[in-house]
Amino acid sequence: MYCSSECRQSAADQYHRVLCQGPSQEDPDHPINKLKDAWRSVHYPPETSSIMLMARMVAVVKQAKDKAHWQKLFSHFCSRAANEEEEIAHKLLGEKFRGQLAVLHSLFKAALYDDHLSRWFTPEGFRSLFALVGTNGQGVGTSSLSQWVHACDALELAVQQREQLDSFIDQLYKDIEKETGDFLNCEGSGLFLLQSACNHSCLPNAEASFPDNNFLLHLSALGDINPGEEICISYLDCCQRDRSRHSRHKILRENYLFVCSCPKCVSQMDELDVTSEEDEEEEGEAEGETEGDDMEDEMTDV
């Protein structure tokens, strides 16, 4: 669905002609549908934003008259799959994911191969493309439910009415979680060049948001920022930032390939490497999972 005929035409001009399935949209044997189904089988919740963002990147280059321009633009995003200095490799490149990635690579190549992008379709190029989307992909927070909840928060209500409304909203999120897993106020994934250039801090001085309920990202200061001071956002959500230093570092190492040395982490250097209670619970649950389940849990962060 598109918000206007102009947006629909823009999509057609930029990438949609390559990805359009026409009358084969419901055909399970269509190469793109096979790719989507394979991704859903290894990813939970069962959305397709990450793999289709990669597909859209290919489609944009394939449709573009100036292919070199788009290839150069995409090259500005970090796409490394390992940090050799820190001896860190992206968690998706481990042995237990090799089979699933090989299947996705084969289907991706069958659906979208293009000679101009041949390096993206090699095994190493595909892993780099995966790392690019996993590292730089920004969830597009345009959830109508999120907007409604924010509007509810702004209402002036009596104490009893506020308690009833909050209870209803809490239950609504719990009901959604039963069906889709952790419900994130996110309706897609996108690449934003300026936002991706911001480094991480566990005490960020800026945040990315979507206050207009569309795809336009706003980078807003959380307080006064002095001239020359680096603008930092957090790659972690609010709950993750409240976890122990050890837990935060684990997430950042596995997903973003660096060891955080922000002021908060430096101030906690003398703390024991203790995993937060949330992580301990997740690890306890994981002990009873099968090897196939591991891929689902790990891929959720990408």
UniProtKB/TrEMBL annotation:
It catalyses: L-lysyl(20)-[histone H4] + 3 S-adenosyl-L-methionine = N(6),N(6),N(6)-trimethyl-L-lysyl(20)-[histone H4] + 3 S-adenosyl-L-homocysteine + 3 H(+); L-lysyl(36)-[histone H3] + 3 S-adenosyl-L-methionine = N(6),N(6),N(6)-trimethyl-L-lysyl(36)-[histone H3] + 3 S-adenosyl-L-homocysteine + 3 H(+); L-lysyl-[protein] + 3 S-adenosyl-L-methionine = N(6),N(6),N(6)-trimethyl-L-lysyl-[protein] + 3 S-adenosyl-L-homocysteine + 3 H(+). This is Protein-lysine N-trimethyltransferase SMYD5. Its EC number is 2.1.1.359, 2.1.1.372. One of its GO terms (biological process) is negative regulation of gene expression, epigenetic. The keyword Zinc applies. Keywords: Cytoplasm, Metal-binding, Methyltransferase, S-adenosyl-L-methionine, Transferase, Zinc, Zinc-finger. It is found in: Cytoplasm. Residues 56-236 form the SET domain. It comes from the Eukaryota. GO terms for molecular function: histone H3K36 trimethyltransferase activity; histone H4K20 trimethyltransferase activity; zinc ion binding. Its main location: cytoplasm. Residues 271-302 are annotated as: Disordered. The lineage of its organism: Eukaryota, Metazoa, Chordata, Craniata, Vertebrata. GO terms for cellular component: cytoplasm.
